[in-house]
Amino acid sequence: MKGGKLIIFSAPSGSGKTTIVRYLLEQPELNLAFSVSATSRPRRGKEKQGVHYYFMSVSEFKKNIKEGNFLEWEEVYRDNFYGTLMSEVERLWSEGKNVIFDIDVAGGLRIKRKYPEQALAVFVKPPSVDELKIRLKKRSTESDDKINMRIAKASVEMATAPQFDKIIKNYKLDVALKEAHRLVAEFVGVEQDSSKPEDE
Questions:
Q1: 23-37: per-residue pLDDT in tens?
Q2: Fold of the domain spanning 6-37+87-188
């Protein structure tokens, strides 16, 4: 499997990685395309096939695992699978793009291990677990039990940070965005524009 670069952003839930990835996708000079994950969970609301996820039945997902079609996959809860299809990465590479992932810590490290030279793995670190709890509560999208589960998982995930190539501390979003842009631009070989204002 040859092609462009792989840029992996991983972090505990609520660290701001999705905001950073969205920002980077809007920078045309980086030539990035987003890798859409596959999942066995049911579609929610206005989610579209191939846009938000590739939706599959559990048996279809297991068949793809057996056939070795995933770059990485994980059973998050019983029969609730998420994964990255090899064909999705190859499709984006064939379009001449560098592929960016917004992915959990375990999946991010698996991709990095498979492509040590082609991948840049970045861990987004929140100021603290307490701050993470505040951010998750502000979202008002989940029950306290679910938030506590995420916080427990976050403590474990924070311990994996040293296994990543780079760590971005997301204490101030504008600083984190600038740092993320610098790291990715360097990795994909884009000239840094010194005329860009230091503070947007």
A1: 999 999 999 999 999
A2: Rossmann fold (3.40.50)
